[in-house]
Specification:
The longest helix is centred in the N-terminal third of the chain and has 30 residues. Helix 1 runs antiparallel to helix 2. By secondary structure, this protein is α/β, with parallel strands linked by helices. The protein has a five-stranded mixed beta sheet with strand order 5-4-3-7-6. A two-stranded parallel sheet has the order 1-2.
Length: 157
């Protein structure tokens, strides 16, 4: 199975979520199930059903995170030496032709958050940027049509 790229920050966030699920959410859910069982007839017990559904969600998320971490290729952008080229983990300053300057970090799919200026490696703009250098222009196919960007700077933070 191919490894999935993930930044060091993304891996740490997943580990923190996994720890919280195992040490806080799972025990709290077990108590909720025990309390709901104490109310009697399980066939008509909405609290019990809700707690069991929550248990399924928690266990599913734990499995999902463990699989993602087990399959992750963790990359620390600070340790990259890509000779100024856009690669996974790079922070890129762009200016859209006739528009404003923007900054994006290219990250894994689970880490993407456009509000925090982190874009997924599989996004159209990230795919267009990979391998390019400062001064290059890239055309990106978006739902609104083709947009042209100029790369101002590439950093590894």
């Amino acid at each position: 199975m191919a490894k999935t790229p993930m930044t060091l920050r993304g891996a740490e966030l997943l580990r923190a979520e996994l720890h919280r699920l195992k040490t806080v959410e799972r025990p709290a859910n077990s108590l909720a199930i025990a309390e709901a069982r104490a109310h009697g007839d399980l066939s008509e017990n909405a609290e019990y059903d809700a707690a069991r559904n929550q248990q399924g969600f928690i266990e599913g998320r734990i499995s999902e995170i463990e699989a993602k971490l087990g399959n992750a290729q963790v990359i620390d952008p600070k340790l990259l030496d890509a000779d100024g080229r856009c690669v996974f983990g790079a922070t890129v300053d762009l200016v859209e032709k006739g528009g404003e300057a923007v900054t994006y970090q290219i990250v894994g799919e689970d880490e993407a958050d456009i509000k925090a200026q982190r874009i997924s490696i599989s996004s159209p703009i990230a795919r267009a940027l990979i391998g390019k250098e400062a001064g290059d222009e890239v055309d990106v196919q978006t739902p609104g049509g083709v947009k042209r960007y100029e790369i101002l700077d590439v950093r590894y933070e």
